[in-house]
């Protein structure tokens, strides 16, 4: 529960990120601290829960749970599995300049995104300057398409062709924590820093660095930036130095040029 509350807080103010499931008519909301407890299974049975769908869940469903709900526990994942298993999907796409979204519905089998596939979408393009939030909003449309397709097959009792995942093309990435993994390395090439900042931008906390304010060092989060190539000031000692500031923006010297950052895209604790 504490991790999900943290996730919900990170989406504060971004109403398009996820539909508010709490406003569904006739929906009963159960908040659980552990999906695998015996008390949880009793609660699900009492409420006559027949199918389980996982959306970005942090729970790992254990064998006993999956045995009781055999072939009735599904996950929806934002990639064409077996590529991009795990988490950090949208950040990694921005870092690697992959401008697309997609989705897969698959069985949960105890592994991480390893179960047999029911449905997949084709890759849909996103704009090159997109933030993770833009990827999420467009991915939700892929999710809706697949869920509608899944429910239609169930309603009409249509046969679903199940496909095993290939192990030859699998990739896996762990979950990022913006506070731990989002620290800017100012020696990196300027265009890579621009991508890095966007990769940890909304709805996440933003890439972080430290800055002198008066005589104090403060932590600052940067949500967006624009790189401009220029070789006038390019000694490594100068990387990361602010050399211009006005009421709207700052300019930072980076490897290969300048980084333009709007003051509205900065987040200071003070």
Content-based structural category: alpha+beta
**Outline, from the CA principal axes?**
elongated
Which segments are poorly predicted (pLDDT under 50) over 5 or more consecutive residues? none
N/C terminus separation: 29 Å
Radius of gyration: 22 Å
Please tally the helical runs, counting DSSP H or I stretches of 4 or more residues.
Answer: 7
Q: What would your notes on this structure say?
A:
The chain is of the alpha+beta class and 270 residues long. It is built from 7 helices and 15 strands. The strands form 5 sheets. Strands 1-2-5-6 form a 4-stranded mixed sheet, covered by helices on one side. It has a 4-stranded antiparallel sheet with strand order 11-14-13-12, covered by helices on one side. Strand 9 and strand 10 form a beta hairpin. The longest helix is centred in the middle third of the chain and has 24 residues.
Summarize the structure.
The chain has helices at residues 2-10, 38-46, 63-68, 89-95, 132-155, 178-181, 190-199, and strands at residues 52-55, 73-77, 85-86, 100-101, 104-107, 117-120, 124-125, 172-173, 207-213, 216-222, 226-229, 242-245, 249-254, 257-262, 266-268. The protein has 270 residues and is α+β, with helices and mostly antiparallel strands.
Spell out the blueprint of helices and strands.
Blueprint lengths: L1 H9 L27 H9 L5 E4 L7 H6 L4 E5 L7 E2 L2 H7 L4 E2 L2 E4 L9 E4 L3 E2 L6 H24 L16 E2 L4 H4 L8 H10 L7 E7 L2 E7 L3 E4 L12 E4 L3 E6 L2 E6 L3 E3 L2
Parallel strand pairs: 1-2, 3-8
Antiparallel strand pairs: 2-5, 4-7, 5-6, 9-10, 10-15, 11-14, 12-13, 13-14
